[in-house]
Amino acid sequence: MKILKFGGKSLANGKGIKTAIQIIKDKAQQEGNIAVVLSARGNATDELLEMLEKAARKETYHEQLTAFKAYQSQTDRSLDFSEEFTTLENLFQGVSLLGDYSEKIKDQVASQGEIISAKLVTNLLKKEGVNAHYTDTRKLIKTDDVFGNARPLDVISRRNVINHFKSYNGTTVNIVTGFIGSNQNNETTTLGRNGSNYTAALLANFLDAEELQNYTHVDGIFTANPDLVADARKIAELSFNEANELATFGAHILHAKTIVPLIEKNIPLRILNTFNSSDNGTVITQKTNTKGIKSISVLDTVALINLEGRGLLGRVGVDARIFRTLGENEINVSIISQGSSERGIGLVIDADKASKAIVSLEKEFENDFYTKDVNKISVIDDVAVISIVGQDLSEFHKPYNALIKNQIVPILFNNTVSGKNVSLVVKKSQLHKAINVIHGQIFGISKKINIAVFGKGLVGGTLLDQIVHSKTAILDKNNIKLNVFAIADSQHVYLDKNGIADDWKFEFQQQKTAYTLQQIIDYAKAHHLENLIAVDTTASKDFIHDYISLVKNGFDLVSANKIANTVEYSFYQELRTQLQKYQKNYLYETNVGAGLPLIDTIKLLHKSGEKIKKIRGVFSGSLSYLFNTYSVEDIPFSMVLKQAEEKGFTEPDAREDLSGNDVARKLLILARELDLKHELSDITIQNLLPAHLQAINLQLFKKSITDLDQTYTLIKANQKEHHVLRYVGDLSTETGILEVKLISVPSNSALGQIKGSDSIFEIYTEAYAAQPLVIQGAGAGAAVTARGVFGDILRLTEKL
Ligand SMILES: NC(=O)C1=CN([C@@H]2O[C@H](COP(=O)(O)OP(=O)(O)OC[C@H]3O[C@@H](n4cnc5c(N)ncnc54)[C@H](O)[C@@H]3O)[C@@H](O)[C@H]2O)C=CC1
Ligand SMILES: N[C@@H](CC=O)C(=O)O
């Protein structure tokens, strides 16, 4: 025999009840021996209890009762529910007169929901030709007298159920009321929370069922609540022990007491979705083959009680007093944590019991306050418990580190000695983010990286296109979901928590209002976005002052902008101090040599103790292009400059290149990588601009660029034969030389031979003394730079 159980949503008017009837009919035809346990339909129980409360407060409930009757009668008008409706009317009337009600009355009211439900389903099945029989469990399940949470009396209930089912030879489908029973005086009782599931489990146990199939409105048990974690996935198999842990920690589908009768007889429990017949659901059995973490569950209606005292160390009986006090006040403790110093104990209890707990504990420890053995009993009520079921402590560092990196510091954590369960108490405001971070980390379904791109110009725009284009491949290959949730230029921002798509340019254009950085930070917080990266593809001197704010708010940084690394050394140092403090990273590989792997190489050599003596070369892609082209072609200098601009090699203001500032910045960045505390002013810079072009505005400069032609025609003409012009950077740690200048070199030398926009860096070290280590390649351009920034983002994702 199989027991089927249907929940309230599965029995709601319309699609629910129709589907449930079809399922029962099909199962009765295909599998024969079944019994069906039912909850009250829709929200019937809540509505009945609401009306009861209203009656007790002497408020009017009549309109709601009329609506209730109409709803319950709507599906099958041939049925007469006058007995149930009259019972309810009489009960409410009595309560209204008295202004109060007992738990006994409450059970009588609540039970009508299941009675109506089972009568309706029986009738509908009969109409469909199924030999259905209405079974009122008040006649079968005998309980004690604890109204509202009655305990079934095993022997008598078992005998009643077996005898009742014996009277039917298997061709009858018993449609059984869940949740309700009766005491020895035949007064209606109810079985408490999850009572209908309990009834189904008891029936399965008493009748030695082959399986209990619990029909709900979800596909089964998930790795986390899908409402909180979009990536949550269904678990196919669970063991009873794991289910029990989940039940304790808020998986509402299960309840510990419903599992016990099944464990006793080793009866599998299958959670199924009424509305998705193609899904096999989750099956819970004695033992599953699959290992590892099963699920993350949450308790969010809890409070953390903290009792602290200097005089508690070694005092016998303190914990006993705490638990006795709480026990006497019917306060259940779900998590306990006490350090070996015994100076404090943390307890997690139901939130609605927090005040009672504090008052009773303060009373119990009144004398200890006077003697100063106890100095504080406090409550933190904006907390939630996350429980990782199946978590082995040897692997716990992974989710824990991920939480810390996302600036979520658990208030308390503890584990079960037997079984694998780690629970963390976190601030409720951080729950959503915390559960997503943990889920991403332990299930490795995909790690979501939330990116804000500041600057959507040449480099930023190309980067965004590259991300949109490659994100699916990166997800498939690396399990990393790149989610650009913010794009900002100097005026507007486009925010989308679900990430940009191909049409990001169009969406950005629709943004018309000014924004502040705080808005972006608040947006990330409000949407619980984890693994945050801010990308700076501006050339802004102001935006760098937002870096520290971003770091403090949980962002790692990637930058193509050289300014933060080249302003005064005190800022350079402060930024690194803050990065260390907040455990954040800052990658800027494209600051020197665009996409070339230069900074990483220098860092590695320096870290490994290799003495770098000199770095020399052509550091600028645009100036490389300018002089490589100008030296061999017979065209005006200004025309080549225009080409360099059009190809995206220059800075937004090309004078940053021509003034030598850009190369000087690169030199300074490299010097600082070698721990040399230089300032930009320490660098000797040869400015390639005539004085009158230096101090005018950009527009005027663009109009006057032909003024450059005469100067460079002369310089070119005055060179030795077979020589070419090159703008070079020179950094010597031995002589202290730091200079950038224009030189003329033989065209067959290494520097003389570079082509296009290539940069070349010759690195002389102790090991690379005679022949330098050479890094050469495109030193500018939106595509290579954006690729370099993308590389930094991917490098960061490995650290998050
Ligand atoms: N072009 C290249 O080959 C390379 C460029 N870089 C660096 O990349 C950066 C970007 O260069 P391009 O894309 O050519 O510049 P661009 O002028 O095309 O784009 C800059 C963008 O930044 C935005 N912006 C300015 N201030 C802002 C602020 N406070 N907040 C947000 N957005 C702001 C602008 O509105 C614009 O969208 C520069 O720092 C440059 O030095 C680095 C390596 C190579
Ligand atoms: N304008 C720069 C771009 C890269 O940093 C250059 O020309 O090298």
UniProtKB/TrEMBL annotation:
InterPro entries: AceGlu_kinase-like_sf (IPR036393), ACT-like_dom_sf (IPR045865), ACT_Aspartokinase (IPR054352), ACT_dom (IPR002912), AK-HD (IPR049638), Asp/Glu/Uridylate_kinase (IPR001048), Asp/hSer_DH_NAD-bd (IPR005106), Asp_kinase (IPR001341). Pathway: Amino-acid biosynthesis; L-threonine biosynthesis; L-threonine from L-aspartate: step 3/5; Amino-acid biosynthesis; L-lysine biosynthesis via DAP pathway; (S)-tetrahydrodipicolinate from L-aspartate: step 1/4; Amino-acid biosynthesis; L-threonine biosynthesis; L-threonine from L-aspartate: step 1/5; Amino-acid biosynthesis; L-methionine biosynthesis via de novo pathway; L-homoserine from L-aspartate: step 3/3. PROSITE patterns: ACT. Pfam families: AA_kinase, ACT_9, Homoserine_dh, NAD_binding_3. Signal peptide: none annotated. Its cofactor is a metal cation. Homotetramer. Bifunctional aspartate kinase and homoserine dehydrogenase that catalyzes the first and the third steps toward the synthesis of lysine, methionine and threonine from aspartate. This is Bifunctional aspartate kinase/homoserine dehydrogenase I. It comes from Kordia aestuariivivens. The gene is thrA.
